[in-house]
Amino acid sequence: EVQLVQSGAEVKKPGESLKISCKGSGYSFTSYWIGWVRQMPGKGLEWMGIIYPGDSDTRYSPSFQGQVTISADKSISTAYLQWSSLKASDTAMYYCARTTSELPLGGFDYWGQGTLVTVSS
Amino acid sequence: QSALTQPRSVSGSPGQSVTISCTGTSSDVGGYNYVSWYQQHPGKAPKLMIYDVSKRPSGVPDRFSGSKSGNTASLTISGLQAEDEADYYCCSYAGSYTLYVFGTGTKVTVL
Question: Which of A37, A105, A107 comes nearest B48 by C-beta?
């Protein structure tokens, strides 16, 4: 069974750093892209970026380029999303999701359960 | 890259059909056959309902169907059921620079 399991909820202060994770299982982790999606409270889905764990090829949405860093450790089948200096506006639910194919073209067929990040002083 | 445009809400009675539109440009929806649709119930992760414009993943009821004409994609739910009440989002491939863009989201209400 394909599963993406994300790390738990985080409460941070502005200016702090954070790295959240997404562990894949039940499939070849290096053969599909993993994307990250933001959902701010009461708002819609926003695509942030995507990584191919096989060679760490990473692409970012222009809206998130320079704001976050996406990485992966294929030895432990885990993708990461990290911030170096959080802002209150980073408060949101963050989802990881797997692409439907080996190319970053189609949709996302399996999703993690989400990680809630709260940034507050 | 602007979000794809969806109606804020649509509604229908049980058994009826509803259609959700998703309007983009020739740089996304109109340029590629890579539109996907997601269902999201409150407090839950999104679920893939349609991909590559009209393909249904295993386990998704055939009441859900997708299509595209020009720069507008559509999701139709036939034989509306109470459990179909949720938010729905479209998503399109938008080229090698932007890659993906999501729609604004539509709330489906079953009357």
Answer: A107
Q: Which residues contact B104 (CB under 8 A, 6 or more apart)?
A: A44, B3, B4, B5, B6, B8
In percent, how much of chain A has pLDDT > 70?
100
**Pairs of CB atoms within 8 A across A/B:** 75
**Spatial separation of the C-alpha atoms in residues B20 and B89, rounded to whole Å:** 9
Q: Smallest CA–CA separation between A121 and chain B, in Å?
A: 25
Q: What is the strand order of the sheet A78-83 is part of?
A: A3-6, A18-25, A78-83, A69-73
Q: Give the up-direction half-sphere exposure of residue A25: CA atoms within 13 A in the CB hemisphere.
A: 6
Cα-flanking dihedrals φ and ψ of residue A76, to 5°?
Answer: -125, 15
How far apart are the C-alpha atoms of A92 and A31, rounded to whole Å?
A: 28
What are the Cα distances from residue A93, in Å, to A7, A47, A85, B24, B109?
12, 12, 17, 25, 24
- Min Cα separation B45/chain A (Å): 6
Q: What amino acid occupies position B23?
A: T
Question: Inter-chain contact A62–B93, Cβ cutoff 8 Å?
Answer: no
pLDDT band at B58 (very low <50, low <70, confident <90, very high): very high
pLDDT at B1 > cutoff 80: no
